[in-house]
């Protein structure tokens, strides 16, 4: 029940339901050449397959360091783990001769007007996304990967994410609260709608305009955007409820669009052209104006809340580990973020890190490895 299959045309961890704990880790690759890079991808594939299936850890030889960190005991349980591998633009520099194979939208993350990016929290050759029922399972997976890849990778940044306990049987449709106290995910895409996922999330064979499409190896993958967005929660907690609700365009208790009572009711912007009910600059109205043109920018959000330490100025360092997937980076995340630039919510949020990545196509059957088509 709590085992997510590793093999398939797409990687797990994208349209699969979100369990309560996540761990995002960006790595830089130290492999000397393309052969070593392939070795790294094979190791990652083997470890992901084992960790997501679970099983006994190899017997201990007292003369050697234990084969497993042991933090889950002698039997690794799947615990709903998904491990997802994505590549960053920097992997396609001249180190491995992959310049010609780069997904066509992949580049270092753009800088948006409200960003205050901390270089120590940005980019990476690789992004590993672990999601599981418990934080320990994710940490066990990370330590397993690190101990199996000596000399091949170095850690760049890492952040844990969490979600409140919730029902996980509606992938992409879970509505749990973020750290500003609002339901998040209400109008997200239905990840169980395969036709919709094919259109908006999965890069198709020969995707893109004729002649300038995606490289053949990329089919079945997806652009993954991660944004570490700090929330100024102390300031937010001193903001009147009515203002909070106008900033998002939704009621705080029910999650319903302003003026309505059902969380899943559709906001009707056509009958509110001047923004009397839902302000024109409300987060949900800018993010998705629901016009024929804006249908192209639908994205699959899969974020987590995060809570780190305390900032140098003594405020809580917490916020949203925003994550989304789309078949076209520019038509998706970039178009949505450009519409959001200048929104009133910016007074309470500060993007400080993240990156643009490409989640690799899945491994269809045992024997294959992640990134095989690329290498
Ligand atoms: C909707 C919160 C950042 C895209 C929402 C909703 C909330 C929310 C409460 C309404 C419920 C829902 O449909 O999920 C936040 C917070 C953010 C943030 C607290 C930052 C800390 C972003 C970013 C993007 C984004 C960076 C993309 C660039 C969307 C979209 C919707 C949405 C597409 C659905 C709109 C609709 O279809 O009606 N967000 N969001 N959000 N947000 Fe955000």
Automatic annotation (TrEMBL):
Which residue ranges does the record annotate as region Disordered?
251-274
Q: Which reaction does it catalyse?
A: heme b + 2 H(+) = protoporphyrin IX + Fe(2+)
Where in the cell does this protein reside?
Answer: Cell envelope
What is the protein's species of origin? Answer: Methylobacterium platani JCM 14648
**Entry keyword set:** Heme, Iron, Lyase, Metal-binding, Oxidoreductase, Peroxidase, Signal
Q: How is the cofactor bound?
A: Binds 1 heme b (iron(II)-protoporphyrin IX) group non-covalently per subunit.
Q: Does the keyword Nucleotide-binding apply?
A: no
This molecule's function is given as: Involved in the recovery of exogenous heme iron. Extracts iron from heme while preserving the protoporphyrin ring intact.
- Specify the protein name: Deferrochelatase
- Domain of life, per the record? Bacteria
EC number assigned by the record: 1.11.1.-
Cofactor(s) it depends on: heme b
> Keyword RNA-binding, does the record have it?
no
Dyp-type peroxidase N-terminal domain: residues covered: 11-161
Q: Tell me the GO molecular function terms.
A: peroxidase activity
Q: Which ranges carry the Dyp-type peroxidase C-terminal domain?
A: 176-363
Matching entries from Pfam families are given as: Dyp_perox_C, Dyp_perox_N
Tell me which family the UniProt entry assigns to this protein: Belongs to the DyP-type peroxidase family. EfeB subfamily.
